[in-house]
């Protein structure tokens, strides 16, 4: 089923509006990606309006961490999702979004990228 972000064809009382048009490509929406913690990284591409291709990270096992003290990057394995500011229930479901605090092999890190939009997982070490 297609998700459309357009005005409803029906009024709150249930009657139909006269000036309603068909579904258009520019009105399409989509479900959130909900990047999950898994054994391997899985990136899928989705085609958008204007020929734009968006990379979506569906499953993540590693994260690119920046250590501010040494100013070095490292790809590190994720152990667990500790905290998520977007939704407290995302922690037990292991969903990773921007602002999520992850437990990694090098310590805790906060996610700075948008994995469902960018297709990669970047974070900054906080401990």
Please describe what this structure looks like:
The protein is mainly beta and 127 residues long. The chain has one domain (35-125): Roll (Structural Genomics Hypothetical 15.5 Kd Protein In mrcA-pckA Intergenic Region, Chain A), CATH 3.10.290.70. 6% of the residues lie in helices and 39% in strands. It is built from two helices and nine strands; from the N terminus they run E-E-E-E-E-H-E-E-E-H-E. The chain has helices spanning 90-93, 115-118, and strands spanning 35-37, 42-47, 53-60, 62-67, 72-83, 95-96, 101-104, 107-111, 122-125. The strands form two sheets. It has a five-stranded mixed beta barrel. The protein has a four-stranded mixed beta sheet with strand order 2-3-1-6. The longest helix has 4 residues, at 90-93. The N and C termini lie far apart (44 Å).
List keywords for this structure.
5-stranded mixed barrel, Structural Genomics Hypothetical 15.5 Kd Protein In mrcA-pckA Intergenic Region, Chain A, 6% helix, 2 helices, single chain, 4-stranded mixed beta sheet, 127 residues, mainly beta
